[in-house]
Amino acid sequence: MNEAEPITLACLDLAGTTVADGDTVECAFAEAIATLGIVSGTASYDRALARFRDARGGSKIGIFRSLFDEPRARAAHLAFERSYHDLIDRRGLTPVPGAADALTRLRGAGVRVCLITGFGRGTQARVLDALGWWDRADLTLCPDDVPRDRPWPDLVLTAALRLGVDDVRHIAVCGDTAGDMLCGRRSGASIVAGVLTGAHDHDRLHAAGATHILPTIAALPDLILRTPANADR
């Protein structure tokens, strides 16, 4: 990429990347599988939790489908969404420090922003409502909007089509999971930045194809806008 090929679209993940997660998503997952009789202290619980952690970044219904048959997967996903919504109500949600400013800086510089997630549309809406972020992005997408979720490139390519991107090299992708990195690389994005505020660590993000590793999304505007940044290539 050179100065003639600026970044014009940033596709940014939600939980763990722009939204501080802590253990909220994992707690909702544990509560969801408990409704199917899978509880802490059992081998089945350990296997399910390991699968969940490994697949972070993908659609939640997809994770449940990898664990259960279709009726139980749908029941678990519904329980997950209810639990996550309840946790939002009890705990609230906060942005990752610097995330809101990063969105403002990017859009102020003419970079369009798409917020993407593995949550279903209803949960994505609850997150955006809780943060008051509906006006922070040019587009929001979730697995309901595409044929295939991450790690396939469909979310990023759909954002490019809807926002009229001329060249996939003009795209930056930022996320906290290996699935985010694979999605970005498969889409052809020039910048695929992993952040260390979420599910997967430096080595996992690097192995999945991250072009840069950032401490938080707060460093992304400096990287995209080509000003000095603390980025590990």
TrEMBL record:
GO terms for biological process: DNA repair. Keywords: Hydrolase. It comes from the Bacteria. One of its GO terms (cellular component) is cytosol. The keyword Ubl conjugation does not apply. This is Phosphonatase-like hydrolase. Gene3D superfamilies: HAD superfamily/HAD-like. The lineage of its organism: Bacteria, Bacillati, Actinomycetota, Actinomycetes, Streptosporangiales. InterPro entries: HAD-like_hydrolase_sf, HAD-like_sf, HAD-SF_hydro_IA, HAD_sf. The keyword Hydrolase applies. One of its GO terms (molecular function) is phosphoglycolate phosphatase activity. SUPFAM superfamilies: HAD-like. It comes from Actinomadura coerulea. It holds the Pfam family Hydrolase.
